[in-house]
Design goal:
Elements: H1 6-11, E1 23-27, E2 31-37, H2 57-73, E3 82-93, E4 102-113, E5 116-125, E6 128-140
Antiparallel strand pairs: 1-2, 2-4, 3-6, 4-5, 5-6
Length: 147
C-alpha cells in the first residue's frame, strides 16, 4: 500500500481503515477529482460477498463524502471544524466495483447556505458511472470527550 499524501491527511480526520481517498488528482474552489483503489484485503470486502466480492454502495458514497470534505477543507477558516454528512439524495448505483478496481471520484460544490454545503458526487470505474449522489453536510466542532 502506498503512503497517504499529506494533503489528504491534513484536510480530513479520516484514517485507515476508513480513509476512502488515495489521491487528489485535481482541485479548484468548487470541484475536486480524487481516486481510490480498492484492494482485496479491505475489511468491508471480507463478507460482501463470498466468492464474488463487491465494494458496497455505501463505501462508494463514503468516498464521495470524503472527497467533498477535502474540497471544503480549503474553505473553512476554523481548522477545528470537520464536515459532517447530513443528507444523501438521489443515490443511484450503475456499475459494480470489484477488488482491484480504481475509481475516479468527482465532487462539485453546488450551493452554500449558511453552514450547509450542498454537493453532487460521481464515482466512475473504467470510465463508466458507478454511482451518483447528491449530498449535504454541515460543519461541527468535534468534542474532545471520549464517551
Amino acid at each position: 500500500m502506498s503512503e497517504i499524501p499529506a494533503a489528504i491527511l491534513n484536510a480530513i480526520p479520516h484514517r485507515p481503515p476508513m480513509l476512502m481517498v488515495d489521491e487528489i488528482v485535481s482541485q479548484s474552489e468548487r470541484q475536486i477529482h480524487c481516486r481510490k483503489t480498492f484492494h482485496a484485503d479491505a475489511f468491508f470486502l471480507q463478507g460482501h460477498f463470498p466468492n464474488y466480492p463487491l465494494v458496497p454502495g455505501v463505501i462508494l458514497c463514503e468516498s464521495a463524502l470524503q472527497s467533498g470534505a477535502i474540497l471544503l477543507s480549503n474553505q473553512m477558516t476554523d481548522s477545528g471544524l470537520v464536515p459532517v454528512a447530513t443528507r444523501l439524495d438521489g443515490v443511484k448505483f450503475k456499475q459494480m466495483v470489484r477488488p482491484g478496481d480504481t475509481v475516479d471520484i468527482e465532487v462539485t460544490l453546488d450551493e452554500v447556505v449558511s453552514t450547509a454545503y450542498f454537493m453532487t458526487g460521481k464515482v466512475s470505474v473504467g470510465g463508466k458511472l458507478a454511482a451518483r449522489l447528491q449530498f449535504a453536510c454541515t460543519v461541527a466542532k468535534p468534542s474532545t470527550d471520549a464517551t
